[in-house]
Amino acid sequence: MSKYPAIIVVEGTSDKAFINTFLEADIVTTNGSEVSRETIDYLKNAIKTRDVVVLTDPDSPGKRIRDILDQEIPGLLHAFVPKEHSIKRHKVGVAESTKEDILEGLSRVIPAKKSEQGRLSYADLYELGLTGYPDSKAKRDLLMKKLHLGYGNAKTLLQRANALGLGKEELKEALS
Q1: Which residue stretches of the chain are H helix?
Q2: Of 3, 90, 162, 173, whose CB has the highest number of CB atoms within 10 Å?
Q3: Which residue range forms the structural domain that includes residue 138?
Q4: Residue 24, beta-bridge partner list
Q5: Are residues 9 and 47 in the same domain?
Q6: pLDDT at 37
Q7: Number of domains in the chain
Q8: Below-70 pLDDT ranges, the chain
Q9: Cβ-count burial of 161 within 10 angstroms (0-12 exposed, 13-18 middle, 19+ buried)?
Q10: What is the pLDDT of residue 117?
Q11: What is the pTM of this model?
């Protein structure tokens, strides 16, 4: 069993239990989308000395947790599991993913906040058909899956692509 160097933040105890079957890691649970002040304070202190990676479920409550944590704690990293691989028994979540998908997500973490190196704009997304068209959502979903950017809308795509310093040509290439 390998050791993961960062603290991993997940939603619940089933996520933590599943990850602990194949990875030695310090894991913090939020216990759902109402992230406690104690958890936020703990992570604010922890990030001073270690990386903190948020690995929440690929759904709306998971995005809500990411947003809450991003507002409160600068410097977070994010890992994602593909939604289509994270559904079992009518549930969507990290615990419903595979070991391989989780390890893949943890190997491709991205920073939470927009980086200065980002150079994409909404106009670029529009030009590439990623917003403003009837099929934009499907194109975004495909692109975000291919680039391991998780689940989200055009604003989320723009923030994550800019955080990685991706340009218009790189998105265009990934779409083809």
Answers
A1: 13-19, 37-46, 60-72, 99-107, 122-127, 136-146, 154-163, 168-175
A2: 162
A3: 114-176
A4: 3
A5: yes
A6: 94
A7: 2
A8: 113-118
A9: buried
A10: 53
A11: 0.73
